[in-house]
Every structure is written in C-alpha cells, then in structure tokens.
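> forwarded from #structure-qc
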C-alpha cells in the first residue's frame, strides 16, 4: 500500500469514525430521554390537564398548543417563503437587488430567536393588537423560519437544469406555466426539506413564544386563534425550574421532552413520506 492510499484510508477512517460518533451521540441522547421519561407516559398524561403546580396530571393543553403553533407558523411561512424563493430564482435575475436580498436573508437567519420574540411582541401583540395569542405566536415563529424556507426553495429551484425551462418555453408555454407545471413539481420534493427543517426549529423554540403566546399555567384548550396556549418547550422549561416537588417535576420534564421529540419525529416521517411520494410522481411523469 503506497503513501497516497494510506493517507486516503486514514482520512476516510476519520470521517467514518466521526459519522458513527454523531449517530452514537444522537442515540445516547434519545436513550437518556426515553429511559427517564417512558415511565411517565400514559394515556392520562397525554390526555389530561396539569394539576398540583404542574407536578401531576397531563400535558394535553401543551400538546395542542404546540401543534397549533406549528401549523400556524407553517401556514404563514411556507407559502410566503416558497413564492419568495421562486421570485428570486426565476424572475429577479442576478442584479444587485437580488444579491442584497440574499445577504439580508442570510443575516436574518442568524438573528437570535429572542430578538424575533421582542419584535413579535412589539408588532403583533402591541401594535396590531393581537395580544398574547396563537396568531401572534404563529406569525413570529413564521418570521423566524422564513429565511430557511426561502433559501431551501431557491436552492431546490437552482438544481433543476435550464434545459427544462428552455424546452417548455420553446413549446409555447409562458414562464408562469413553466414554473407551475414543470419546475415546481420537480423541485417540490427538495422544497419539503425546508418544511421539515422549519418544523423542527419551530417545535423547540421557547423565547419567541414566551413574549407572544405562551401561558405559564392554562389548564384548558384554546377556542380561537386569539387565545393564549401552553406549549411543550415553555412547559418543559417551567416544570424543570419552578417545580416544588423536584423528583416529580424532573419526571414530568423528561416525559414532556419525550412527547415533544415524538411529535417532531412523527411530523418528519410524514413530511419525508410526502417528499418521497412527490419524488416518485416526478420520476413517473
């Protein structure tokens, strides 16, 4: 074995070891949460309301609140982000304005989430008069993940060869028809990747909802988008730091974390199945 092969073998061995290490760390974290939280999981825990300083009862209001915020933020961020990405890649060209938009989008994705929370409180809660509500929290979270959806959509559109655009236009289709019937269906499986990443980030955010929607203790389900809700990330923080019964609070915290991870995992599986479905549909057509 010559020197080049030895270096290559050694380098790829390091890459392989680091990859296995990442997987090992992931399984260790999941195993730790499951081990400490599985004993709390029950039908009463999933469907009941919190009691006794949130050291007893269930977390149904927090589960419902988290799902409402996930859905609300995606309803806002996904269409706006996808349309923005389409405009930047297909219509705007490559002028200074587009470069400026890309720079600002990248900068926006690096802003701490607590700043989005302060902005959401100022604009949605106070100025627009939505109050502490699902609507205000969803819009704030939507703004938080909007840069991610835009960049993912733009990269997905860039991956489609220009020959498809040229061929469609040569057959007499307009640019809008080309985007709607040719480019977007082919890019959609990769666009869903942005949806998956966005849902994962929204599900675990605490700072933005702290300023706009999250309630400390609210043992009831929301009746409208203008109601406050409990949310799993904030509920997890509260019972981990404010419980009077330390052991009971710790068990509840691990159980809440396990439920949150399970919800994110199920949504990711659903989104990946959707991506696979559209990917197979594109290959068939």
């Amino acid at each position: 074995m010559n020197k080049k092969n030895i270096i290559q073998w050694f380098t790829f061995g390091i890459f392989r070891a680091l990859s296995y290490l990442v997987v090992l760390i992931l399984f260790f974290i999941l195993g730790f949460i499951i081990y400490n939280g599985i004993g709390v999981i029950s039908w009463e825990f999933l469907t009941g309301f919190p009691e006794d300083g949130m050291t007893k009862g269930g977390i149904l209001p927090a589960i419902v609140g988290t799902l409402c915020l996930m859905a609300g933020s995606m309803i806002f961020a996904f269409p706006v982000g996808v349309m923005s990405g389409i405009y930047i890649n297909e219509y705007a060209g490559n002028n200074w304005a587009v470069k400026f938009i890309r720079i600002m989008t990248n900068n926006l994705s690096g802003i701490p989430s607590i700043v989005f929370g302060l902005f959401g409180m100022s604009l949605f809660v106070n100025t627009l008069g939505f109050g502490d509500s699902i609507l205000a929290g969803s819009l704030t979270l939507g703004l938080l993940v909007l840069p991610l959806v835009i960049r993912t959509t733009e990269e997905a559109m860039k991956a489609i060869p220009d020959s498809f655009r040229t061929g469609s236009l040569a057959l007499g289709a307009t640019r809008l028809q080309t985007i709607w019937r040719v480019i977007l269906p082919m890019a959609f499986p990769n666009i869903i990747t942005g949806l998956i990443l966005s849902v994962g980030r929204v599900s675990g955010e605490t700072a933005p909802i702290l300023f706009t929607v999250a309630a400390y203790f609210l043992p009831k389900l929301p009746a409208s988008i203008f109601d406050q809700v409990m949310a799993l990330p904030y509920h997890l923080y509260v019972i981990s730091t404010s419980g009077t019964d330390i052991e009971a609070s710790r068990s509840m915290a691990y159980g809440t974390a396990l439920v949150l991870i399970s919800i994110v995992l199920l949504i990711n599986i659903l989104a990946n199945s959707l991506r696979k479905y559209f990917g197979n549909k594109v290959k068939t057509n």
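QC bot note: The chain has two domains: 1-37, 43-284. The mean pLDDT is 85.
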